[in-house]
């Protein structure tokens, strides 16, 4: 059984004081029973990582620490960048790569996503590889082809075992931060398509163990419907992860009416 992973992507929100407050509020609401059945990760901005790590470690909170980005090189003249090993040293477990905002705003290419995915794995962390289509691509009937090629490019050169250990986040770009969500049926179909793509290249075992998240305006009201689909193994949550109450209700989707 694939244990779902629900990840809070805080994006460029919250300074380290605010981050400490949010992780503490989350800890009052998310229980041991919840994390028995769902893995939970939080992805604060870089400047908050050390603070959040200290709270998680000292209070033994049942959350995985995540990051939103890193460089694929280990060191060098890359002003402003962070190396994977710097994150690993802070007990980071999951690193998002290929988020559509990084692809669109910062010019991250498929090739860079592939290099980053490999670098994250090489450091013993788990990449959350994001893929997603624009509204124009969807309307033109190109969504499946786009997702297929992004998955293939991101995973080039990995072993089946490495692919089986990954998290892939399917995030239709038109649903991110817009309040529009893919219907549970569409989200399931696309996540199934991702899994079938993995199966075609890496075989059954990798396809059965890779975890596929849905992301894009996940809220307490739609979490249960999305997260109970057979090929959806969790959620990458942006806006709603900044509110401890909303995020904990998403984590507790199985208890919703
Ligand atoms: P959203 O963001 O939940 O605010 O739509 C999701 C994401 O970008 O990961």
Blueprint of the fold:
Blueprint: E1 5-9, H1 16-29, H2 32-37, E2 39-43, H3 46-58, E3 64-67, H4 84-88, E4 92-97, H5 100-106, H6 110-122, E5 126-131, H7 135-139, H8 143-155, H9 160-164, E6 167-170, H10 184-202, H11 204-209, E7 211-215, H12 220-227, E8 234-237, H13 244-251
Parallel strand pairs: 1-2, 1-8, 2-3, 3-4, 4-5, 5-6, 6-7, 7-8
Helix pairs in contact: 1-3, 1-13, 6-8, 8-10, 10-12, 12-13
2-phosphoglycolic acid (PGA) binds next to strand 8.
Ends distance: 24 Å
Number of domains: 1
Task: Compute the average pLDDT.
Answer: 97
CATH architecture annotation name: Alpha-Beta Barrel
- Output the CATH topology: TIM Barrel
Order of helices and strands: EHHEHEHEHHEHHHEHHEHEH
CATH 4th-level superfamily: Aldolase class I
Compute the gyration radius: what is it? 17 Å
Main sheet characteristics? 8 strands, parallel, barrel
Portion in strands: 15-25%
Q: What structural category do the secondary elements indicate?
A: alpha/beta
At the first level of CATH, the class is: Alpha Beta
Biggest β-sheet: strands ordered side by side in the sheet: 1-2-3-4-5-6-7-8
Shape: globular
Our count of helices gives 13
Tally of strands: 8
**Helical content band:** 40-55%
Walk me through what this model shows:
The two termini are 24 Å apart. Helix 1 crosses helix 13, helix 10 packs across helix 12 (220-227) and helix 12 packs parallel to helix 13 (244-251). This protein has 257 residues and is α/β, with parallel strands linked by helices. The longest helix has 19 residues, at 184-202. The model has no long low-confidence stretch (mean pLDDT 97). Helix 12 links the parallel strand 7 (211-215) and strand 8 (234-237). The protein has one domain (5-255): Alpha-Beta Barrel (TIM Barrel). The chain has helices spanning 16-29, 32-37, 46-58, 84-88, 100-106, 110-122, 135-139, 143-155, 160-164, 184-202, 204-209, 220-227, 244-251, and strands at residues 5-9, 39-43, 64-67, 92-97, 126-131, 167-170, 211-215, 234-237. The chain is globular. Helices cover 47% and strands 15% of the residues. It has an eight-stranded parallel β-barrel with strand order 1-2-3-4-5-6-7-8, surrounded by six helices. It contains 13 helices and eight strands. The protein binds 2-phosphoglycolic acid. 2-phosphoglycolic acid binds next to strand 8.
